[in-house]
Specification:
about 130 residues, mainly beta, Pdz3 Domain, two-stranded antiparallel sheet, 2 helices
Length: about 130
Amino acid sequence: MRTKAFYIPFFTVLAIIVLLGLPAVTGCSQDQKFGGMGLNVGQLFDPNVFNHRGPLVVLDVLEGMPAKRVGVEKGDVITHINNEATEGIEFDKLIQEKMRGPVGESVTLTVKRASMEEKLIFTMTRVAVSGN
């Protein structure tokens, strides 16, 4: 059986890197509790997408957070959030509307891992993180 190589050149990651779970900058009052999964992500540049906005890539997984507990790893490429493709969507919109959300709400990530041919699906519950 032949293994397919899956390589993510880090120079294609956009310079914007956000720690998920910090309070949303817009559309969120201080009283509202928003949660995250404990991921640092960036957005890949994709010349084959009309606006060049590729999927998200995991740059870091925070210890003790939901993403770490379910098995998300650094380098995983997030292709879908709650069954919606990440390709072609602006980074801020993905973070504000898809990755972050109410504490206690479930979120499902579909990821492609370099060492595996098939995609992986992780479901986790958002938790409050420091800063909320």
